[in-house]
Write a structure and sequence with these properties.
With about 140 residues, the protein is of the alpha+beta class. Helices cover about 20% and strands about 20% of the residues.
Length: about 140
């Protein structure tokens, strides 16, 4: 599958992919002492915006770094959707707390203790409370 480097730093080393260090040939210096680099695709650090191949395991680790990497093909987009589906039950469970065995949720305005909360059901934006029904 293909991912894209969208890291705001641009050129980044990614040891997980075996991509780090210089990645190109330098031309001879001009009269100002500058030498342009010609990147060698697939070697050294990732270039800004570069699309690259990744295994599923590598993609799972890199796609967690929102703002650094993004899906670049349908297969990677499906994997990102699958990862979101896998994380959803765990995130929902974290939104519901109990106070002495009584479900406690925060509805955005106040704590609601003893509210009937069916398993897996959460209020969007609910916050876990360990308080005893006070703000």
């Amino acid at each position: 599958m293909k991912l894209r480097n969208v890291n705001p730093l641009g050129h980044v080393d990614v040891p997980l992919l075996g991509r780090q260090g210089d990645n190109g040939e330098y031309a001879e210096e001009d009269e100002r002492g500058y030498a342009e680099r010609t990147p060698t695709p697939g070697s050294g650090c990732l270039e800004p915006g570069e699309e690259f191949d990744a295994t599923e395991d590598q993609a799972r680790q890199l796609l967690r770094q929102v703002g650094n990497f993004e899906p670049a093909d349908d297969e990677a987009r499906r994997l990102l959707d699958q990862m979101a589906d896998e994380a959803r039950p765990e995130a929902q469970a974290a939104l519901i707390g109990t106070e002495g065995g009584i479900p406690t949720i925060h509805d955005g305005d106040q704590f609601v203790t003893g509210a009937p909360v069916p398993p897996g059901d959460t209020t969007p934006g609910a916050v876990v409370s360990t308080d005893e029904g006070t703000d």
